[in-house]
Amino acid sequence: MKESGRKQGASSPCAACKLLRRRCAQDCVFAPYFPADEPQKFANVHKVFGASNINKMLQELPLHQRGDAVSSMVYEANARVRDPVYGCVGAISSLQQQIDALQTQLAMAQAEVVHLRQFN
Amino acid sequence: MKESGRKQGASSPCAACKLLRRRCAQDCVFAPYFPADEPQKFANVHKVFGASNINKMLQELPLHQRGDAVSSMVYEANARVRDPVYGCVGAISSLQQQIDALQTQLAMAQAEVVHLRQFN
């Protein structure tokens, strides 16, 4: 049985095992999520979280949640590599500012609706 | 010279060195940000990012940006401990949904303003 991460045949290690220079076992926890043809995907999560922490976090989750956990870790890691000071917390601040601006605009529009209805 | 993290005297290690069971040097990179009286703050970033990665990330930043980097890493780590599958990417999705809802409400209110003005 080949995991989905083994796109180049059973003897080809996944991107994680290749970077860590270790044998990619049949039951490798990384292989289904880090295919050999996407080396940067693992490189960034390894740089930010460390292979050992990712391994531990994945082992603590049921199989059906691991794909989502990897996606969110890859997103966070890429954000941290792009912005080493704020990472994806920078995106959160920016979204919160957008929400504040939209709430102000909405309150103004709703006040105008109330005002215009008085004269109709 | 005591760093701000050494609140319990020069001989007391910062929360990071205490957890890592090592001597807290005068120039410890963690001490200014991880005081001994907030052990959970370091425990979570260590669990998620690993002490070695945090050390590397801080060393790569100028001193004046390290406080913000630690705050954002603590925020991310706490979010990941609370929600091991989505971490703070869950907050990003939820904020984006709020933005979509506000934009819809705003468009409706603005359309109503245009409609009401036609009859004034």
Automatic annotation (TrEMBL), chains A, B:
Transmembrane segments: none annotated. Residues 12-113 form the LOB domain. Coiled coil: none annotated. It comes from the Eukaryota. InterPro entries: LOB (IPR004883). Belongs to the LOB domain-containing protein family. This is LOB domain-containing protein 4 isoform X2.
